[in-house]
Amino acid sequence: MQREIHKWWSPNLNKEMEIAVYGSSGNYALLMFPTAAADFLEYERFYLIDSIAPYINNGKIRAFSINSINNESWLNDTSHPEYKSERHGQFNEYIANEVVPFIRQVCGENVQVITTGASFGALHAANTFFRRPDLFAGTIAMSGSYDLKDYSKGYYDDNVYFNSPVDYLSNLNDENVLNTLRNRKHIYITSGQGSYENPEASKNLSYILNEKKINHQLDLWGHDIPHDWPSWRKMLPYFIDSKL
Known about the structure:
The structure is a single chain. By secondary structure, the chain is α/β, with parallel strands linked by helices. Helix content is 41%, strand content 20%. The chain is built from eleven helices and eight strands. The longest helix has 27 residues. The two termini are 20 Å apart.
């Protein structure tokens, strides 16, 4: 498998950011958001990259795994909530204005970019897609909570609202954005029902999407599927193999 590490100084985040690129071609680019406060190599360390290697090697996908800044925003207990909120907004700008152009430079302008992530990474993956469906072809969100208030510890402002999918999607009435979302074919919300999973969070997001007539697939796996890496090593290959 071809593997490259790229990095550049991000003007939006005012820090150096790395990105791992796996594969040499693909009809789809998989944009991977780490869990919790992890880094761009987390999915490699926990063998998730190995689990999707057949689809990287056969040219179906090329994977792009980025750094999180969650330890500078919602997982930082020492910073003021307003700073955390602003930092999340800056991360969005980094994705839209730096990462997406990089992916298109590497893969070509017509590549379909699918966001994905597990746990906190699922919130970022889903939020990134739902905020900018003009940039992304879909999302594979695994074992996430899609209410940012679960992380903001009582703080609420516009940045929290507009990064909390269950909030802004519930009130979304812009028909242009809704029609763009309705035309996307790859919206997958999945969760196990075992230890430490929260399938109700996925059901709640699915309910809102149904209310807005946004086509998607809610896929709840069994009570033997916990909130853990072996589950995600099963889920992600399944969706790549059977849905993309």
